[in-house]
Amino acid sequence: MQEPENQLRIDEFLRTVTRAERSLLLLDYDGTLAPFREERDRAFPYPGMARLLEQIVCCGHTRVVIISGRDITETVPLLGVTPTPEIWGLHGLQRRKPGESIETVQIEERYLDALSDAGRWLRYQRLQQTAELKAGSIAVHWRGVSEWEAEEMRGRVLAGWKLIAEHSGLQLLEFDGGVEIRVPGVDKGDVVRFVLSEMEPGTPVAYLGDDSTDERAFRVIRGRGLTVLVRPRWRQTAAQFWLKPPEELVKFLKLWLEAVRERDALGGEAVAAVSR
Predict the structure, then answer these.
(1) Is 185 helix (H, G, I), strand (E, B) or coil?
(2) How would DSSP label each residue in 77-90?
(3) Nearest alpha carbon to residue 56 among 29, 87, 80, 24
(4) Which of 94, 132, 160, 247 could disulfide-pair with 121, CB 3.0 to 4.6 Å?
(5) What number of CA atoms fall less than 13 Å from residue 98's CA on the CB side?
(6) Domains in the chain: ranges and CATH
């Protein structure tokens, strides 16, 4: 956001948010709204983030959707936003609409058997303490260890998981600080595509994410809205813009909040006149 040209393009996009009856804000959780923590149950949002999201949700003009690799039962208490926005978990295997219960995709028995094999491989390698067990996947995390230790762990995990994936049809998904073996099917790009199908054509939309699991979502949004990489260091990405958390991310969300509040201040008729 420091580049004047980028700021102008973001300002132009936010003007479309002001003019629109509805807008769509799609957000990853870990690494985007919250810093990575070795204690995953302590990965709370950056200071002020929950309050900002609450205000955007309560304005009523923006559909806020969290799309995470976490189980929704973990994300809701960590997020701490009331009312809770729409949340998709496990890269799209779960969905929780505001005020409703969690919907989960039914998983075939053969995939559950293969995940059990993947868990046994971790126990054989004595790496079970690094694993995060989810409905439909197992993730191994090595954030916080040395580069050499991370590469050694990765090799040990993939030595067994690659064969399991090849024989079962499970997918291997590498992310920033780990690797996950999961049932095939939906990913974050599929979630974004589905959510967009529920919105009116031309709805202003932005997706904010940080790691490789967000790249498919960036590609789906590209040409239809704003895509933003959120991380302390830049990396090669399909996203259009890069924000450093938390300061630049907080600034962006404050600008979004101002945009939707301006719509209310102008009133529907005035906004329609501006749109023309």
Answers:
(1) coil
(2) HHH--SS--EEEEG
(3) 24
(4) 160
(5) 14
(6) 4-105+186-275 (3.40.50.1000), 109-182 (3.30.70)
Q: Please, are residues 241 and 222 in contact by the beta-carbon 8 Å criterion?
A: no
CA 36, 178, 216, 171 torsion: positive or negative? Answer: negative
Nearest residue to 94 (alpha-carbon basis) of 140, 137, 43? 137
Output the pLDDT for position 270. Answer: 46
Output the furthest CA–CA distance in the chain (Å, rounded).
67
Helix (H, G, I), strand (E, B) or coil at 229: strand
SS3 for 202? coil
Nearest to 154 by CA among 143, 169, 165, 164: 143
Nearest to 133 by CA among 112, 152, 156: 112
pLDDT in tens, the chain (276 residues): 457 678 889 999 999 999 999 999 999 999 999 998 888 889 999 999 999 999 999 999 999 999 999 999 999 999 999 999 999 999 999 999 999 999 999 999 999 999 999 999 999 999 999 999 988 999 999 988 999 999 999 999 999 999 999 999 999 999 889 999 999 988 999 999 999 999 999 999 999 999 988 999 999 999 999 999 999 999 999 999 999 999 999 999 999 999 999 987 776 554 554 444
Say which amino acid occupies 101. S
Nearest to residue 57, comparing CAs of 89, 84, 75, 76?
84
Q: Which residues contact 193 (CB under 8 A, 6 or more apart)?
A: 220
- For residue 222, list its beta bridge partners: 225
**Cβ contact 155:144 at 8 Å:** no
